[in-house]
Amino acid sequence: MSTQNSLIPPLRYCTIQPNLYRGAYPRELNYKFLESLQLKMIISMTPDAITEETDAKFYHWARKNNIRLVHIPSAKSGKGKKRGVPLGYTSIVGAIELILDSDNSPIYLHCLNGGQVTSLAVACLRKLSFWSTVSIFNEFISYASDISVADRSFVESFVAEIHVPKRKVAWIWLGMSRGVVGNHPTLRFYESEVK
């Protein structure tokens, strides 16, 4: 069977919300599938940026398809329950602010294997969306296979100020009043003027 015309998603691929996808570092056999998503942006939460020097095929494929590559640095994480958290809150806020801007959609968010780092970003996004802690951690375990004490603490302690663009994605806070969002227990939001 030839994979040349097959649509093969990246490892741990999933739709997070409409026009927002997650998974592992894309390989060449995933490019055709990713093209079908009509991506505008790929957010890479990896130790190294995707450049012509680090991954020429991926870099040129993204340029050919007019996909903006954004790098959010993360450390290489260890294994097991004692692994550290490979990124900080500033990095998570940066990713969330890009995700909330509808001008950037559709977006593919990935780390090296689609596990811990991507799951941390998605967990913080779910917290922003008022998901319960149990639901957040159940989803986390689905992709990372386990959750360390450091991971749990990172998500539970996530407190931030988040810039919400005027042209925000349609799925955020669907059906919730402004007063509810303004009183989020751990996060503060501010809107900006149109660019």
From TrEMBL:
- Where does the record locate the signal sequence feature? none
Q: Which SUPFAM superfamilies does this chain map to?
A: (Phosphotyrosine protein) phosphatases II
UniProt cross-references to InterPro entries, sorted A to Z? Prot-tyrosine_phosphatase-like, Siw14-like
Output one GO MF annotation.
Answer: phosphatase activity
Source domain of life = Eukaryota
Q: Quote the PANTHER family the UniProt record gives.
A: TYROSINE-PROTEIN PHOSPHATASE (PTHR31126), TYROSINE-PROTEIN PHOSPHATASE OCA6-RELATED (PTHR31126:SF14)
Q: Which protein is depicted? A: Tyrosine-protein phosphatase domain-containing protein
